[in-house]
Description:
Layout: E1 2-5, E2 11-15, E3 18-24, E4 30-36, E5 44-50, E6 56-63, E7 65-71, E8 77-83, E9 90-95, E10 100-104, E11 109-115, E12 121-136, E13 141-144, E14 151-156, E15 162-167, E16 177-182, E17 189-193, E18 195-199, E19 205-209, E20 217-221, E21 227-230, E22 236-242, E23 248-254, E24 261-266, E25 272-279, E26 285-286, E27 292-297, E28 301-306, E29 311-316, E30 322-326, E31 332-338, E32 341-347, E33 354-361, E34 368-371, E35 375-376, E36 382-397
Antiparallel strand pairs: 1-2, 3-4, 4-5, 5-6, 7-8, 8-9, 9-10, 11-12, 12-13, 12-36, 14-15, 15-16, 16-17, 18-19, 19-20, 20-21, 22-23, 23-24, 24-25, 26-27, 27-28, 28-29, 30-31, 31-32, 32-33, 34-36, 35-36
Amino acid sequence: YYSIEYPAGQIIYRSDARLDDLRVSPGGERVAFVEHPVPGDDAGRVMTVDASSREARVLSSGWGSVDGLAWNPSGREVWFTAAASGVERALNAVSLSGTVRKVAQMPGGMELRDIDSAGNVLIDRSTQHMSMMLGNFEKETQQDISWLDWSRAVAMSEDGKSVLFDESGSGGGAGYSVFIEHTGSDTPKRIGEGRAMDMSSDGRWVLAQDAHDETKLMLISADGSTHQPVQGGGITYRWVRFLPGAQSILLSGAYPNQPPRLYKQQLPDGLVVPAFPEAAPDSFVVSPDGKMAAAFEPTNRIVLFDLVRSRKRVLQVVKPIYPVAFNRSGEVLTSRMQDRSIVLELLNPRNGQVAPYRRIEMPEAPGIVENLPVCVSGDFRSYVYSRLQSLSTLFAVSGWK
């Protein structure tokens, strides 16, 4: 869960969605913030919560990208930077009754940093691009396989010959686009719309989520010829992984007014059945036999879920390390950042010891602000990862109303 405390120690709002850009109103009676319902996606809505009554309200929703928020000095409007689709955010204002108006638009994207008491605006104008790098451990090679402006790597096939990614920027369109990159092909193949979620180990099937409705999944064949809706009875799919054989999935999901939990579901329209009784993590990886799952918790803990006996083990680690995959011996491949390197290590689930495995040296590039999780092939020979590049200039602007 994410929570807002105001004052410290007093929770006035709690959500299983990511919360950021918290700002207190000039009078101190409300907190405005952005809520991102989908893990790893900056789509979201602008909200306020009353500090006394703890009543939360959605002021503006349906934004494909929203980042940056501040109160207008009058206290009657919340200003924020957002785009309906793509990443070229404009500066908008929304009243406390929910009326939205556009304040300013620039070429490229904007991020609102602050507004002072005189109404002067601190704005960040940026050009952003997400690139995708494909590498081979044995050959020690990397190549940029980016396609459009926001290539987000999601999964690899067992043999490393197919890469699943999506395009959620301007090039991907309002509904996002799902692609598969095949080794040796000149261009990737667009197989459908949505947010890419996972690829079966044999590379034959893909799961995609509706970009505007987190309760809708689509099962898509790798050639794009078959699209089959996955019915979940209204559950919000937060994270999805194919189980062995691609006949069923393990998912982290939540029904309305319930916390996220781990479930299993037969494809395409089987019942959603609880797989584990306790609250579920935002992301996880599954062992090749489908009997175990692993996740990282922010308190520097690796949680191992025994999906057969509904038990879990917690391993305390000294630094944040993120599960990437299980190997055939049951060890967990983990990743962490160190300078410009992705450090891969093997975690022994029996004793909690971590041993070095590989180090991925990332090519130098200006403006790298975020590295997304690395994906590896089932044979541990190939890998793919994405990283966000942002080149920005900070402006102080007066006169916007």
